[in-house]
Write a structure and sequence with these properties.
Layout: E1 3-14, H1 15-23, E2 32-39, E3 42-49, H2 53-58, E4 63-72, E5 87-88, E6 94-102, H3 105-114, H4 124-138, H5 144-153, E7 157-165, E8 171-177, E9 182-185, E10 189-193, E11 205-208, E12 213-218, E13 228-232, E14 244-245, H6 261-267, H7 269-277, E15 281-283, E16 288-290, E17 298-299, E18 302-303, H8 304-310, E19 313-318, H9 320-337, E20 340-345, H10 346-349, E21 361-366, H11 372-383, E22 388-392, H12 398-402, E23 405-408, H13 421-441, H14 445-480, E24 485-490, H15 495-509, E25 512-517, E26 534-538, H16 545-557, E27 561-567, E28 577-580, H17 588-606
Parallel strand pairs: 19-20, 19-21, 21-22, 22-23, 24-25, 24-26, 26-27, 27-28
Antiparallel strand pairs: 1-4, 1-10, 2-3, 2-4, 5-6, 6-7, 7-8, 8-12, 9-10, 9-11, 11-14, 12-13, 15-16, 17-18
Helix pairs in contact: 3-4, 4-5, 7-13, 7-14, 8-13, 9-13, 9-15, 13-14, 14-17, 15-17
Length: about 625
């Protein structure tokens, strides 16, 4: 979950250049930050608790051709100067920044203490750098890469690491197992990061390091590709270099005129949905069709989409917001395509006995494509010879590379920790998949054509929902920012939206919030309802409208403070009503989620919370 960034160049970069790139990774962790660099063949370093800005106040600008840097999301050891990265070996000869968790660090630490090593921090990362130092010192006849390979094979856990060693003042060493590493190459420099967004302004040529690989980079050779060598540390095979071109609009990495990335990402959901749908919804003279190129890949010489069409069971694994999109996908795929769908929390799925019907196909949803639990669930299913499909936003991410096929969101980077545009894009892609399967199976065709036609309207309707409701949501936030608890209720298609609304509020405002099926309220949560309990209830006019309205009356009878989300043509409610445009009932989730995003944002803002970087959270969860 931490962010790591490095530079190795034929010329000097400024310290502020490194810090600028590191700031683009701050969504991955922001409780401390640090930098190590080479200066006259010696390792220098600085690190501070708190935001990256503290580094700039701590040190004047200077130059070096080699930097490794880190922004932290704490796992082992509380946020502090001493627990910040980089960590150095006991003799200060090796410096390391680390994303991941070393699971056997306690065993290694005891071993090292018995050998005379001492430690300054509480971190597993300081243990790792000293263990590498120990193995290197133990085998002086071997080169550093060979000794690093030996050390990493004895380490249990996940890591993405950058290392500099003052015995090799012109080289940098990078290793990966379970945590993402991208290497960018320009005409005279290398950039290494846990996310290629951080160096997009310097180069579009990117190499993705695979698990169990070590890269050794220098900038001595004339040809840049001769400066980098990669090998697999488990079998010592040399790896062929495969750089890819990435395309990204750099303006997407800026807040522009918005006060927060989250607000920008809420407001630009018309654009993100248009990007998500572009080239995928096709209209001929008479009908609409759906094209999902990533599912035309062959699996055992058969297009994946053809296998999916004939499937009787689909397993979906995801975490957090992606899990809520999976719950909605279950409703939509079962209804439109008549395929049974099982939704699993990826973190729990991995640790119980698998009992899946024959022919089950696995679908794995992750905005980053690096979510640790979801990635490991995918790997488990692949080991059982299941066909696996990834739904991700980040091109070149681990899930996108390791699945047999998949669908990209194509919405550009989402920087705010609380997901907004990625959620609506995820459900957009999942709806397209359900519609494609229904078309292939030749079922529900009239209904499918009507839904696709309405989906053309969705981006504009999302924009209208935002413009119509922003002021009302802002006004409601002024009242409800003082609440200590919230309930979010919905049924059918809107039940996953209630779950997502509760998650958004608790993530960024720190108000305790729970989402429930409206019908489940009377099986326990109704005991909590009084005039001090705000209840958000999604009550659009759909096939279970009367049922939800009854649940609403039950809340009213107990004095709950109610916020109602319904559709514009509904005239039954008068107070605290937020109305979204009318549309086919199956598509209401795209619209009903918008006021929940806005309410959460403005409540958090009113409470003085850090909206883009909520406490204890990071955007990409790459540890268990």
């Amino acid at each position: 979950m931490c962010g790591i960034f490095g530079i190795l160049s034929k010329h000097n970069f400024k310290f502020k250049d490194c810090v600028k790139a590191l700031k683009k990774l701050e969504y991955r962790g922001y409780d401390s930050a640090g930098v190590a660099y080479m200066m006259n063949s010696n390792i220098e370093y600085l690190k501070k608790k708190g935001k990256i800005n503290n580094l700039e106040r701590f040190k004047d600008d200077f130059e070096s051709n080699m930097f490794i840097s880190h922004t932290r999301w704490a796992t082992h050891g509380k946020p502090s100067d001493v627990n910040s990265h980089p960590h150095l070996s006991m003799d200060n000869s090796i410096a390391l920044v680390h994303n991941g968790v070393i699971e056997n660090y306690e065993y290694l630490k005891k071993k090292l203490i018995n050998l005379g090593y001492h430690f300054k921090s509480e971190t597993d990362s300081e243990v790792l750098v000293n263990f590498i130092h120990y193995i290197n010192k133990k085998n002086p006849e071997s080169d550093f890469v060979s000794n690093l390979s030996i050390a990493l094979k004895l380490v249990t856990g996940a890591f993405g690491i950058l290392i500099i060693n003052n015995n090799y003042p012109n080289k940098m060493f990078i290793a990966k197992k379970g945590s993402p590493i991208s290497i960018g190459m320009s005409k005279d420099s290398f950039f290494i990061s846990s996310d290629y967004y951080s160096f997009a302004e310097y180069t579009k040529d990117v190499l993705y390091l695979n698990d169990n690989e070590i890269a050794q980079i220098d900038c001595i050779q004339k040809n840049m590709k001769d400066c980098i060598k990669i090998h697999n540390f488990t079998n010592n095979l040399n790896i062929k270099l495969e750089f890819q071109k990435i395309e990204i609009d750099l303006i997407e990495l800026e807040k522009e005129t918005f006060s927060h990335f989250m607000l920008k990402e809420i407001m630009k959901q018309k654009q993100s949905l248009n990007d998500c749908f572009r080239g995928r919804i096709i209209k001929d003279e008479a009908n609409y069709s759906i094209k999902l190129g990533g599912l035309e890949t062959l699996y055992h010489n058969i297009p994946i989409i053809d296998i999916l069409t004939k499937a009787k069971h689909i397993l979906i694994c995801a975490c957090g917001t992606s899990l809520h999109s999976a719950y909605l996908a279950k409703y939509i795929i079962e209804e439109l395509a008549d395929i049974s769908v099982l939704v699993e929390q990826a973190s729990e799925f991995r640790y119980r006995k698998l009992s899946l019907p024959e022919g089950t196909i696995g679908l794995f949803i992750s905005q980053s494509g690096e979510t640790k639990d979801t990635l490991e669930a995918l790997r488990l299913c692949k080991s059982k010879e299941l066909l696996t499909i990834g739904i991700c936003n980040i091109v070149g991410s681990s899930i996108s590379r390791e699945s047999h096929g998949g669908i990209y969101l194509h919405i550009g980077p989402e920087i705010g920790v609380a997901s907004t545009k990625a959620f609506t894009a995820q459900i957009g892609v999942l709806y397209l998949l359900a519609l494609k399967l229904a078309i292939n199976k030749k079922i529900n065709l009239d209904k499918v054509q009507k839904i696709i036609e309405d989906m053309f309207r969705l981006p504009d309707l999302v924009e209208k929902t935002i413009s119509d409701l922003e002021t009302e949501c802002k006004d409601l936030a002024k009242i409800y920012k003082f609440a200590n608890n919230f309930l979010f209720l919905g049924r059918g298609y809107n039940y996953p939206i209630a779950l997502e609304g509760a998650l958004k509020l608790k993530e960024i405002s720190y108000i305790h919030a729970e989402g429930y099926s409206a019908s489940e309220m009377k099986h326990g949560p109704i005991a909590l309802i009084d005039r001090m309990m705000p209840v958000v209830i999604i009550c659009t006019q759909d096939k279970i409208y009367e049922k939800v309205k009854t649940n609403l009356e039950e809340v009213k009878a107990r004095g709950g403070s109610i916020i109602i989300i319904t559709n514009k043509s509904n005239q039954e409610f008068k107070e605290n009503v937020l109305k979204v445009p009318d549309i086919d009932e199956i598509l209401y989730p795209f619209l009903t989620t918008i006021p929940l995003q806005l309410i959460s944002y403005y409540i958090a803002l009113g409470r003085g919370c850090n909206v883009d970087q909520p406490r204890n959270l990071a955007k990409c969860v790459t540890v268990e």
